[in-house]
Design a protein that fits this description.
2 domains, 195 residues, alpha+beta
Length: 195
């Protein structure tokens, strides 16, 4: 057996130092993941906190269709989500009123399909955020955050809401269906002033 030289000892010391440093970096990485999780959760809770609650006697009735200046779905074509598989802006040229909101379509064919069966194509929960509704709350939507589940269109408020909703789509849909059925709605024709 050959005697240990200084370079061998240095290499052994270096290997141990690398192993200790690697372990420390793994722990730091794990800690950072949990900090990011806590930060994201905090942001979500802060974002959801100011939303009005549905339940309770003080619940304020909402418009049965989420609209701004009379336009539902922020002007996007509800049929296009089903036919082209992507959000598509509609045109004022192809539009119709349904349940107090004006829906716009990208083609006369999509307008005809909606006119024939609006319940099939209209977004769930009046076009409000599906994740917020599952939490017994109401929120606006981002038309680019959507999913079609069992032939129904669901929209969400943004990336975070879409991601959280996606963790348990069936459970969130059940909760949102129940909450929406109890949600107080304004009579058709009553206008809500947006600030």
């Amino acid at each position: 057996m050959r005697p240990l030289r200084a370079t061998d000892r240095a290499q052994g010391t270096l290997a141990r130092a690398i192993a200790v440093t690697s372990a420390a970096l793994r722990q730091l990485k794990d800690r950072m993941r949990s900090y990011r999780f806590i930060a994201c959760l905090s942001i979500i809770l802060l974002a959801i906190a100011p939303l009005p609650r549905v339940s309770g006697a003080e619940a304020v009735p909402v418009d049965p269709v989420n609209k701004r200046d009379g336009i539902a779905l922020k002007g996007y074509d509800p049929v296009a989500y089903f036919t082209s598989g992507r959000p598509t802006e509609g045109s004022a040229q192809y539009s119709m009123e349904w349940k107090g909101g004006i829906y716009r379509f990208s083609s006369p064919e999509n307008l005809a399909a909606f006119r024939e069966n609006p319940e099939k194509y209209a977004p769930q929960y009046g076009g409000y955020c599906a994740y917020a509704m599952s939490l017994d709350r109401i929120a606006d939507i981002d038309p680019t955050k959507w999913a079609i589940i069992d032939g129904r269109l669901y929209l969400n408020n943004g990336f975070i809401a879409q991601s959280l909703w996606s963790f348990d789509k069936p459970g969130n849909i059940r909760k949102a269906d129940d909450n929406w059925s109890r949600y107080p709605k304004l009579a058709e024709g009553v206008q809500v002033k947006h600030e």
